[in-house]
Amino acid sequence: MSEHIPVLLDEVLESLSPRDAARYIDGTFGGGGYARAILEAAECQVVGIDRDPDAIARGQEMVAHYSGRLTLVQGCFSEMDTLAGGEADGVVLDLGVSSFQFDEAGRGFSFRADGPLDMRMAKDGESAADFVNTAGEREIADAIYRYGEEHQSRRIARAIVAARPLTRTAELAQIVSDALGPAALRYPIHPATRTFQALRIQVNDELGELERGLEAATRLLRESGRLAVVSFHSLEDRIVKRYLAERSTTAARPSRHAPADARRAGTPLYRLLASRPRSPGAAEIERNPRARSARLRAAERIRRSA
């Protein structure tokens, strides 16, 4: 199993600017890379949150090492304002699946090694197998199109329904490849990549979790607190970009779709730390190819809502 390498770590630390006696939330603890870097950068406290119980178990050695400075809590980062037990000076979110989850065949996130068709981050609720074996063809096609941005979603959904029941990742990957036929040869990535991404997002409600998590972070952050979000595909980045833009000092006329506190004239909630997302350089991508699509957006909390 490969080590989880935190992406854009230097840039995240620069955005958060950890300081002594401050309190930070790592809402996607995973392998603990960001939490460890924050704890090493300042004499501060960190609360690590992860919905995966395996991540919490792996992190207990870190808890002991940073005696009294690191607390781990199992749960969704969308509930961080209740799980964290108080306000924070900074929040970091590293979205998507961790290397530990991706590389463990038994978790069913990847088609690169055969395993059960699971994909659940928290090991409860509906699995990917449950969804593809019970949902209607149109619902499956819509999920693959919406969350995987796969233009052949209807063809793939038709093949999935015809082949049910499905229980293994390798089985699903082959069905997708066969459904695409010669077109699969033109894909710059494995032809099943977008379908697997879509099913993972569907099963874990990742985009809904992100939207709720951004609201929770806003409630949690003190004035001058920093929010840093690392995303890995356009759907996530679009949500983060829009959320921060509609609540920042750069929004001359906030969208009518923004919440009431962001629409009130003269009441921005954030100051963007950069107008464009930060991306990994060539050296980081060479060290860690999974960083290739990463984007970092960061902002500073400038006003507490009433």
In words, what does this structure look like?
This protein is an alpha/beta fold and 306 residues long. It folds into 2 domains: 9-100 and 206-301, 3-Layer(aba) Sandwich (Rossmann fold), CATH 3.40.50; 106-204, Orthogonal Bundle (DNA polymerase, domain 1), CATH 1.10.150. Helix content is 42%, strand content 14%. It has 15 helices and 7 strands. The chain has a 7-stranded mixed beta sheet, sandwiched between helices. It is globular.
Strand segment tally: 7
Helical run tally: 15
Largest sheet: 7 strands, mixed
What order do the strands of the largest sheet run in, or round the barrel if closed?
Answer: 3-2-1-4-5-7-6
What portion of residues belong to β-strands? 5-15%
Given helix and strand content, the structural type is alpha/beta
Compact overview of the structure:
This protein has 306 residues and is α/β, with parallel strands linked by helices. The chain is built from 15 helices and seven strands. It has two domains: 9-100 and 206-301, Rossmann fold (3-Layer(aba) Sandwich); 106-204, DNA polymerase, domain 1.
